[in-house]
Design goal:
This protein is mainly alpha-helical. It has one domain. Helix content is about 85%, strand content about 0%. Helix 2 (about 45-65) runs antiparallel to helix 3. The chain starts with a helix and ends with a helix.
Length: about 120
């Protein structure tokens, strides 16, 4: 498999994971609106989680129109998301299965982002 095709397949996998996350964020906004406090969590957490409704799809688009930017944004999203979710888990508890899925995605992205960003037109 050539480097450009590896890069493309990795970016497709990133996009599929981000699409699943986008779906979850859209469901939450549709049910609770943009200002939901997630049951009383700190505002900085709720603003970030709600903002992912727009940031995740932006990363999906960038993965294909500006691959390097999309990969860097994807890496930033998952690093910050897992950091925030780790803090929330420690302070308030968290549903373990989705959190572990995010940690697995973080590990995958950290291990592959350089190859995914090596796009050649």
């Amino acid at each position: 498999m050539t480097l450009p095709s590896r890069s493309l397949w990795l970016r497709i996998l990133y996009a599929l994971c981000l699409l699943g996350a986008t779906y979850n964020h859209v469901l939450i906004v549709a049910e609770y609106d943009w200002g939901w406090d997630y049951g009383g969590l700190p505002q900085c957490v709720t603003i970030f989680w709600t903002a992912l409704t727009l940031i995740d799809p932006l990363a999906i688009v960038l993965l294909f129109v500006w691959p390097r930017g999309g990969v860097v944004l994807t890496l930033a999203i998952i690093v910050v998301d897992v950091a925030i979710n780790s803090w929330v888990a420690r302070q308030y508890g968290i549903d373990l299965a989705p959190f572990l899925a995010q940690v697995c995605f973080l590990i995958f992205v950290v291990c592959t982002w350089r190859m995914a960003a090596q796009y050649r037109a």
